[in-house]
Fold these 3 entries.
Entry 1:
Amino acid sequence: MNMKKIILTGLLLLPVFAVRADERSQEILRKMGATFNGYNSYSIEFTATMQGEFQDLDGFLIVSGDKYYLDVYDSEIFFDGRNGYTYSESNDEVIIETPDPNDTRLFANPTRIFSLYERDFNSNFKGTVTVNGKSTSQIELTPKSNDMGYSKVTLYADAQGMPVRLIYRINEYGNDLVINVSKITANVPVTRDTFLFDPTKYPGVEIIDFR
């Protein structure tokens, strides 16, 4: 599984958990979803860690509707609502793909991240714990499908219902992806160009077009 897709999925799932749940966890998830859905756009600053793979990678994400831009590690990922552009600085190449809307696998279809699928998760409230100096509600989310690429997600939300940390148990690696959210900014300025890859800004880039 591509490491960049793992991180991308972890971040983009933040605002859209919609699950059949026990009452307490459902209330928290509903509040979180309503908050993010009320934004015209938002940005997230975060770090990502996976034992044995990478440590404290800084990342930055901007989302507006079904569009997003992610900057993490040596890569930038653009999604304009139709096509995805993954630029690798180390390889000096960009891969262009159009996600298949009929592919239900989460990692294979980024557009699915922005939809609400109430049938996909079971959830349980696990209590209150301190994370990064904040009192948080711990919620365990279990995918009902084996095709999502992970077996469990643990979400930690603060008193305002905002995500502080997510921990993913990744099937392929057998260990955890930990995403710590350091800052969320609502209604950040965006334009159409925010989510488009402009090859003129990357002289000499190799373009690999799979569309």
Entry 2:
Amino acid sequence: MRQALTQPILMGGAPRSYAILNGTLAAVVAFAGQPLWGVALGVVGHAAGVFLAKRDADAVEVLKRAMKIKGRLEC
């Protein structure tokens, strides 16, 4: 079995879909007139993605699935 078939696709250490979303949001903030906030958002967001990927490679996918559960916050 090839190792590439079992490992998640990462961009800079963060999950690919998360890195693309984070980069897009940072670019929107930066081009909206707040370049310092956009860079800060991109760096902090990417660091959070790398941290999640190191702890669990599927953490972002699990969070996406958990957000779809309707009664997740009800007691």
Entry 3:
Amino acid sequence: MNRAERQSAIDEIRTRFDRMVSAVFVDFNGMTVEEVSKLRDELRKSGVEYRVVKNTLVKHAIKDRPYAAQVTEILHGMTGIAWSYEEPGAAAKVLKNLVKENQKLKIKAGLVETTVLPPSQVEDTLATMPGKDELRAMLLATLMAPAQNFVALLNAPAQNFAYLLDAQRRKLAGES
């Protein structure tokens, strides 16, 4: 790799780190080509970009970032990076499921904005975060609850009156 190609690769990696909401660093040592292909396919379906890049290029790309020292510590051996650009937990969710299936795949660390997370937090916290659609549904349910309660309160007198009429009808008909 000549100097221009190297600088281009560093700039490309830097751009990915600028755009990302979160990133997950994984060790895929010992995985077969089929397993890695499945990993890439699953991540792609979730809108996550996955690349295997040289550790030295990543170190150069993030050298001026506040998290550079912590990330540099985990950059050894074979490292794949899964960048998520929209949902912070997207990559972590997919990787958590794949780690359960394949013992060779290991999560090294996670990165959310400028915070480096250990592997346990990536699996326990980041992977369990609700996605955009789930958050929208929760917000909608919160916004709809007062209106639903109000409608129920408005319907209560009419409903109680209907119960009263039904009870009176049963009483007159001799039903219990």
